[in-house]
# Entry
Amino acid sequence: MAKKFDFEPLFSKDTPADARATGKRGKYDFAVAYPDPESVPIDGLWQALRDAIQKEGKGMAIYPPPQGHVGMRELLVEKFTEDRGMKVAKEDIVLGNGSGQGITLLCQILVNQGDVVLTEDNVYVGTLRTLRRFKADVRGIPTDDNGIIPEELEALLKQLTAEGKTVKFIYTIPTFQNPMGSVLPLERRKQLLQIAYKYNVPIMEDDCYVDLAYEGDVPPAIHSLDDRGQVMYVGSVSKIIAPGVRLGWAVGPQSVVGRLLNVKLDGGANELAAMAINLYLRREMDSHISEICAILREKRDAMLSALGEYFPPSCKWTKPKGGLFIWLTLPEGVDASAFREKALDADVGYMPGVNFSPSGQAKNSLRLCFGFNTPDEIKEGIRRLAEVFEREGAFKQASGSAPARKRSVR
Amino acid sequence: MAKKFDFEPLFSKDTPADARATGKRGKYDFAVAYPDPESVPIDGLWQALRDAIQKEGKGMAIYPPPQGHVGMRELLVEKFTEDRGMKVAKEDIVLGNGSGQGITLLCQILVNQGDVVLTEDNVYVGTLRTLRRFKADVRGIPTDDNGIIPEELEALLKQLTAEGKTVKFIYTIPTFQNPMGSVLPLERRKQLLQIAYKYNVPIMEDDCYVDLAYEGDVPPAIHSLDDRGQVMYVGSVSKIIAPGVRLGWAVGPQSVVGRLLNVKLDGGANELAAMAINLYLRREMDSHISEICAILREKRDAMLSALGEYFPPSCKWTKPKGGLFIWLTLPEGVDASAFREKALDADVGYMPGVNFSPSGQAKNSLRLCFGFNTPDEIKEGIRRLAEVFEREGAFKQASGSAPARKRSVR
# Structure
């Protein structure tokens, strides 16, 4: 047999080694941010594609506009105006593979090795991974039940400025935050923006979950409050249609859009998907969102009720008004990641809190996603999880544990 | 009005500035590599999607496998085996946005600033742009009517080795090359591989045009001749279905796949498109490819015949056996890029040859793509182009022009 060629010495010094996940999943899968699988609007998407393809199918013979399908971007302009109070033109929008591609490309054009980027502590693990991939120095901003604490952000920026650090941007999910489920109130959004102005730091607002609102009003986007072009904005249809369609957007001022297009060397966003989604959303967006919100509200309630039934008072958890996540905190000193395999043995998946923390805190917390399973499955999964935790001693404060941090997550 | 925020000082030092193209196109658009717009299999794709979505639509609620749709990769394994003589497993394939995303990510994991990459001189402008984006030192390998000249490749590698340069890989489009239309014969493929073995340099084989074969047999893929895992391989459905569906693949040994997935931070390839294309190709690939080849053969013949009718003997052009391109060479000393605007004024688009050349040669050549227009339009477009060239003096050798290079392109 021929000697195999060794690629290892050739790999670029800037790219990380192979670190593929094993991908083990539980039947009761509270680990990953899936929406409700029964709600994928299969018939509506197919009908929309049938009609769109008859009308504009030949257009697929040419490469899509670099910024993506025009009709879809026009629809987004309307949606951003009506739902989020934003003023943008279709030229300010770049379509891509989910919000993930937008976030990655924005990081790519902004982050040099060692640059500081601020995020909520804790924050979406995908963004954290991407920032680390670009060798950013990610610092966590302390949060409470209402998201980023403005005073803490200002203190952090003051300190970093004194240290002479370059802060490239503040990444935030202000609405139904991943993983903590919080909503940043309007007053804090304004304060956050004023602080960004004062320290001359742009904001990257991730609004991925905004349509999954189960009670009360949602504050306007931070982007809508900004009159200086200092806020970048990303989102996707992963939560209102399905992650598999891989359609998202990045919004920014022209200088950012131009840079972004120069690193987005993939020939444009998928026109087939954009065509179908554009027409489907024009026909059925409001009714479909109402429908999935009703389903997800029921699932959230099922999980909250099961937590109340099976989990002891030594644990705390959030009661989110939207989104997909409940943030569960075990007693002080308990290591939530220690039971992951045991939980998977009982067919239950969850995500340890420490995975979401730039500072490596939140060791005794974990994230539960209620989107994927049925309410009955959720109840059974939470029952099994409580059983594993009880058996493994996770409900009791660890003896000899370190004293609580001044500001624990919640 | 508020002072606008200035992003310029924040951009990463590794990313190029905004350089958006103006996008001016002619009615007779021989500039861009579009396939035949009438051949986009609209009904077939729609029917396939209708059936696929009923069967596997719910699967879109979860994120796609990082390497992309399983069924599509299984189909590719069959196609590679039957058509290209390759032995690969579905785990060796990563789906992405066209072949462009694969090429970009492979460059990203392999190229450090200043690394040498070898390509045909001349070569696909998209790859050239991507390599320059990663600051590769791109060197052109001299070619003739049969593609890369093995002796020239070996001489170049010998010289670069003597200079102590790191050569990261050889990028080649061996079949229906873009822009020159050549096919590398089997014997040269074997020689190329032996040289790659001798100098320990991997090959990136771009097989984007292989299905557009209008006469004679196509030699097997270089990948199929390699038993050391030294050849990476990319391709797409852009030419057999449509660029707008944005589906392509990168194939490589596991070490390359693992690295690639670590920089492909976009949540996976489009499942909606992959689902439809997978089922469509399983149903109609062979008949559809026969059909588009018949149409494109007619277009090629129309362009060759119009060139014969309207262009003088002072010009030379290739007679490709497949693909989408004719490479036209004006008399020595003429600058083919000088007439681009004038041609667009006559509604004709073409791509100056110098755009494709790593060494900046081929100044008196240009690329004509015959895929987009109808045969009648092609005839009229070539007539207009000849009129512009005649009027502008492009058919006469420039007075005082430099003597011909020892090895001009053809």
Notes: Residues 42-284 of chain B form a domain with the Aspartate Aminotransferase; domain 2 fold (CATH 3.40.640.10). Chain B touches chain A through 94 residues (CB under 8 Å).
